[in-house]
Write a structure and sequence with these properties.
single chain; 217 residues; alpha+beta; Jelly Rolls; 6-stranded antiparallel beta sheet; 5-stranded antiparallel beta sheet; 4 helices; 33% strand
């Protein structure tokens, strides 16, 4: 597989090598060792989620507060979608930057999204199914919801929509990035970096780096 960093640091595009034969194709969608070596992120799934969406459904932008944080490996297992990652880590050199990837179930491409980044997508076909491998289990009250159509982000939804977008009431009422920052809801870049280092140290058997005070809540 080919693993390359996107325009958003700590988000990576993973393109597998499809092995065809008369029956169809085979590919590896996730390899812990290859992902860790290429990215420095030590990603171990603890929960798997799926959602099914009709064309023009927009889900997101979503994240998880730190702590606990949640990294995701996102892939399309049926249909086609436009995947969007946004850097909302306060203090990040690329704060506010986004990156888009078309995920087509026929190609097997995936996106790794580190803790602290916001994620969303728009379904480009009916009956689109997306898979999320998640580094932490769901914890009520830790979800971070941001407005997908925040004009300050300038996300390219309109170029991909073929009709009116369909959003949940929760997503439609979500705050903008500026509003979330004012309320203190956004993750801190330094806290995210400390979490990445701690996760790597724990899995390599070394001592975990102590988190900054904000992460001990």
């Amino acid at each position: 597989m080919r693993i390359e960093e996107t325009a958003v640091p700590d988000a990576y595009r993973i393109t597998p090598k499809l092995l065809p034969d008369p029956r169809g194709t085979f590919h590896e969608s996730y390899r812990y060792d290859l992902l860790a070596a290429a990215t420095g992120h030590h990603f171990v799934p603890r929960q798997v989620n799926y959602s099914v969406s009709g064309r023009n459904t927009v889900r997101g932008l979503h994240g998880v507060a730190i702590p606990p944080g949640q990294a995701k490996l996102v892939s399309c297992v049926r249909g086609v979608l436009l995947d969007v990652v946004v850097d909302v880590r306060v203090g990040s050199p690329t704060y506010g930057r986004h990156d888009c990837t078309v995920l087509d179930a026929r190609e097997g491409r995936a996106v790794f999204v580190a803790e602290g980044l916001a994620h969303g997508f728009v379904a480009l076909t009916d009956d689109t199914c997306i898979s999320y491998l998640c580094s932490t289990e769901y914890r009520p009250g830790t979800q971070l919801d941001l407005r997908a159509f925040d004009p300050e982000l300038g996300l390219p939804w309109a170029r991909w929509l073929t009709g009116e977008p369909l959003l949940s009431e929760k997503d439609a009422a979500a705050p903008t990035v500026a509003e979330a920052a004012e309320r203190g809801l956004l993750p801190d870049y330094a806290t995210c970096r400390a979490l990445y280092r701690a996760n790597g140290a724990q899995l390599s058997g070394g001592p975990a780096a102590p988190p900054p005070p904000a992460a001990r809540l």
